[in-house]
Structure formats: C-alpha cells, structure tokens
Amino acid sequence: MYYQSPYRTAKSKPKIIKVAGEGKISIEPDIAEIRLGVSTENSALAKAQEENARAISDIKKALTTAGIPENEIKTADYSIHPQYDYVEGRQVFKNYRVEHMLLIKVAEINRAGAIVDTAVRNGANVVSGVTFETSRYEEFYRQALSLAVLDARRKAETIAETLNVLLSKVPLSIVEITDGKMIPYQTKTFAVSEASTSFHPGTLAIISRVHAEFTYASM
C-alpha cells in the first residue's frame, strides 16, 4: 500500500521527518493445523510403501469418522529414502524408509489433542508440529495496519513538538511493510501413552509495520 501526497513544489525541497510505525493485535487463534504421518521401513521398497499406504488409509478413515472433512486432510509431503549402515568403512544398504506426512486442519482447536491421539491410535508414528492460526486474519490485520499508521503519526508529532516545528497534517508518503506472525507448537519427539494430548496455543500476534514521511515547516 503506497500513498503519495501532492504536497511538493519545484521551488523548494521539502523538509521531511521519517518515522516507522508498528501496530499489533493479540488474539486467540481458532484454527489448528496439525502435521503428522507415518514412517515405515523395509528392505523391499514395495513392502514399505504398502505398509505406509495402509496406515495412512486407516488414519484418514479414523479422522473422517471423528468429524474431520476429507478436504481438510491433505498430503503435505511424501518421501522415499534408502537407508545405509557403515560396516568397516563401507556403505552397506540397510532398507528403505517411506514417509507420508498429512496436513490436517481442525476448526475447533480444543479438539486438536484428541485428533492427534486418534491418528496415533490408528498408525501415525510421526507428529512434526501444530500451528495455530485465525480465520479472521484479514480483519485483524487491517486493525493492526490502522494502529501502525497512528503510531507513525504520533512519533512524527513527538519529533515535531521537540523541534518546535509545524508538522503537515497529511503525510508525504506511507509505505506498508507486512509482517504477520503465528505461534507454532513444535513436537520433536512424540511418545504414545495412555495420557491424552493437550495443547496450549496462547495468543496469536498479528503485526503490521509502515514507514512514513511527513513534511514540516518552521513555526
């Protein structure tokens, strides 16, 4: 977003105050995106793929039964890697590892833990992370942008008052610099136990930044 003021003459170069403004909105997220899947290993590639496909199918069926729409369960990554051992300094083939990761969107974040537990009970053995987001991002971002502009204006006014100069009411220019943030929950290790999984997403920070220029004149 860029605004250019007509306040500029060919006769004189305007005196300018340059400032940066920041606006921040803290909200509670209402969407969870879960990344989990299945890793299988076998010396026969076809066997590893078959075992993996079966587990993924079981997970998808269990999740749809739990109320997750099919279109909210997507493949995030699929990879095949040969595994090797080193014997007396030589690389010796061990087996193949097949990994299929799913990205699951959960509209009710209080169910995120239960969804993870359901997937694990049905074959998931990799949980790589959970990201919390908001379905009203654009609305909150615009609020943050407005706060950023006001912040820039207040800073320019402070500088002008300190210098005892007259600040123009309309900025010469405003440049929007976007920067949204999310709060991720990253799981490096995941242990299957009788205890249920729970997540604490905290708050989501949505931040907007602008650079602004204001002209000023002597009092």
Give an account of the 3D structure.
The chain has 219 residues and is α+β, with helices and mostly antiparallel strands. It folds into 2 domains: 2-28 and 136-218, Translation Initiation Factor IF3; 32-126, 2-Layer Sandwich (Alpha-Beta Plaits), CATH 3.30.70.2970. It has helices spanning 45-65, 112-121, 137-163, and strands at residues 2-4, 15-27, 31-42, 73-87, 90-106, 126-133, 165-167, 173-180, 183-185, 204-218. The strands form 2 sheets. Strands 1, 2, 7, 8 and 10 form a 5-stranded antiparallel sheet that branches. A 5-stranded antiparallel sheet has the order 4-5-3-6-9. Helix 1 crosses helix 2. The longest helix is centred in the C-terminal third of the chain and has 27 residues, at 137-163. The radius of gyration is 27 Å and the shape is elongated. Residues 180-194 have low confidence and may be disordered.
Descriptive terms for the model:
alpha+beta; five-stranded antiparallel β-sheet; DUF541 domain-containing protein; 26kDa_periplasmic_antigen; SIMPL/DUF541; Translation Initiation Factor IF3; Alpha-Beta Plaits; 219 residues
Helix-strand layout with pairing:
Layout: E1 2-4, E2 15-27, E3 31-42, H1 45-65, E4 73-87, E5 90-106, H2 112-121, E6 126-133, H3 137-163, E7 165-167, E8 173-180, E9 183-185, E10 204-218
Antiparallel strand pairs: 1-8, 2-10, 3-5, 3-6, 4-5, 6-9, 7-10, 8-10
